[in-house]
């Protein structure tokens, strides 16, 4: 990939300038938009690698922008929002955003989130268009056809629910999945609740993580959900 292009959608000039300066220091290309309508136009015409999207724009709700974009692009969208309420983040993630940053955020935090998003872009580009039968991430390997999981070549025995949770997270590596979304995908509507999900995720983590106290793969987002992180192999 050449220099990644980041579309910065932000109506607050001070925040947009801070982001732009940060991106310049890292040699990223960027393009700026200050409205939702402008963001939608630029997303189609510039084809950015990642979008940084402020949820509170003058003309459109950020969640509506995400829904419109998801009709035609899987480009990573990182929501940047002053709203600290978890409900807004969850709504944005459920609409298809990959990740979120809450203002005020640090420059290091912004860059770390961008690296995660770009890793997903690179991985998707490298993968063949055919749906992969085998998933590999660091020491973890899933054979979807055999329904088996290994860590460092050693098979890990999972219950059917743990396996389904792992596959869901693996297929969305790099993306924050909400509790609501995961429960719906694994159990169907009304099939389980968030406390039950936490119990299964705890046992999955104990089986999967080399050191469950310092997870490398399964990241917890308190009050929001979980994410599978990509490790270099
Ligand atoms: Ca704003």
Topology:
Elements: E1 5-9, H1 13-25, E2 29-33, H2 36-46, E3 50-54, H3 62-70, E4 77-81, H4 86-94, E5 99-102, H5 107-126, E6 134-137, E7 140-143, E8 148-151, E9 154-156, H6 160-171, E10 177-178, H7 179-187, H8 194-208, E11 218-221, E12 225-228
Parallel strand pairs: 1-2, 1-3, 3-4, 4-5
Antiparallel strand pairs: 6-7, 7-8, 8-9, 10-12, 11-12
Helix pairs in contact: 2-3, 6-8
Bound molecules: calcium ion.
Calcium ion is lined by residues 11-12, 54, 56-57.
- Cα-atom radius of gyration: 18 Å
CATH architecture of the largest domain: 3-Layer(aba) Sandwich
User: Shape from CA axes?
Assistant: globular
Low-confidence stretches: none
Note the main sheet. 5 strands, parallel
**Ligands, deduplicated:** calcium ion
Helix content: 40-55%
Number of helices: 8
Which fold name fills CATH's third level, the topology of the largest domain? Rossmann fold
End-to-end C-alpha gap: 19 Å
Order of helices and strands: EHEHEHEHEHEEEEHEHHEE
- In CATH, the homologous superfamily of the largest domain goes by the name Response regulator
- Estimate what percentage of residues fall within beta strands: 15-25%
């Amino acid at each position: 990939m050449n220099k990644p292009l980041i579309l910065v959608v932000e109506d607050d000039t001070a925040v947009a300038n801070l982001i732009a300066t940060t991106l310049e220091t890292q040699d990223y290309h960027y393009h700026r938009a200050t409205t939702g309508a402008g963001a939608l136009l630029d997303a189609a015409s510039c084809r950015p690698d990642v979008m940084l999207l402020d949820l509170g724009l003058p003309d459109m709700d950020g969640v509506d922008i995400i829904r419109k974009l998801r009709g035609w692009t899987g480009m990573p969208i990182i929501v940047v929002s002053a709203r600290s309420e978890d409900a807004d983040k969850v709504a944005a993630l459920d609409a298809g955003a990959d990740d979120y940053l809450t203002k005020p955020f640090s420059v290091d935090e912004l860059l770390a989130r961008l690296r995660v998003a770009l890793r997903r872009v690179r991985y998707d580009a490298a993968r063949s268009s055919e749906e992969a039968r085998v998933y590999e991430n660091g020491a973890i390997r899933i054979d979807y056809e055999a329904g088996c999981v290994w860590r460092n070549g050693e098979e890990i025995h999972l219950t059917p629910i743990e396996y389904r949770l792992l596959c869901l997270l693996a297929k969305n590596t790099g993306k924050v999945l909400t509790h609501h979304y995961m429960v719906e995908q694994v159990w169907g509507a009304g099939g389980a609740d968030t406390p039950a999900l936490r119990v299964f995720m705890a046992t999955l983590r104990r089986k999967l993580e080399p050191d469950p106290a310092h997870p490398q793969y399964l990241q917890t987002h308190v009050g929001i959900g979980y994410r599978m992180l990509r490790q270099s192999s």
